[in-house]
Structure formats: C-alpha cells, structure tokens
Amino acid sequence: MRIFQALEISASALTAERLRLDIIANNIANVNTTRTPAGGPYRRQFPVFAVREGMVDPQAPFPARLWPPLTNGVRVVGVFEDRSAPRMVYNPSHPDANAEGYVAMPNIDLVTEMVDMISAARAYEANVTVINEAKSMALKALEIGRR
Fold this sequence. Notes:
The chain is an alpha+beta fold. The chain is built from three helices and four strands. The chain has helices spanning about 1-30, 60-65, 110-145, and strands spanning about 45-55, 70-80, 85-90, 100-105. The chain is elongated, with a radius of gyration of 23 Å. It starts with a helix and ends with a helix.
C-alpha cells in the first residue's frame, strides 16, 4: 500500500534531519574548543545524505512490476569533518597560542550553523506535515468502508 510508503519515506527524513540537528548542536557547542583528542581545534562536522532506493515487489500485479523502483526516503552516508583551515585569532594570553600569539580556533561560522539549523527544522516540520496528511488520508479511506 502506497500510503505506508509515504510514511516510511517521511520517517527516514525525520531521522536524517534529527541527526543533522544533533550535529549542528555539537558544532555550536564546540565553537570555542581549541583542544581535541586528535590534536588541534575542533573541526566542523556535517552529514551527507543519499537517496535510499526502493525495490519493485516481484509479487506485485503485472502493471506494478513495470514501474521503475520508487525512492524510499533518505539515508545517511556518513558524518564528515570540514577540512577547511581553522580561524586564527590573535590572543597571546591563551594557553594554546603559537609563538606569534595566534590561537587556532574551530572553523565554525555561527551564521552558517544557524541557517542550517533553520533549514533542518523546516524540513523536519514539512515531513511531520506529510505524516499527518498521510494518516488523515488513511483514516478517510477507512471511513469509506463504513458507509
């Protein structure tokens, strides 16, 4: 039934956007972290998403098998580090300052993180709306059988 497919697609998007929001929160929390276990300042992280391909059901009626496979949502490929150079801030009194007095700060731009956060929140809200509408459609379809 295609209605459940819509729910599955939106559910995968909700999971992906929640992960995206978690990563953004982690980036904002570490905006001033100059020491990491790997050495050096914290590096901005970002998720990479990809299409999760669907399968054509071999048991489906004949016309349905002719349709192309449907996309069944999104999957997270991985979480990667931004390899851009750290921001160099002049602060000779900082314990991590180099010989010239500059401190390597994380390559995080708060404006970019806030824009990404708003985008993720809007995508999350849109997928919640899709789930609610699919649920409403299913309930309306059940009402047809009652009459």
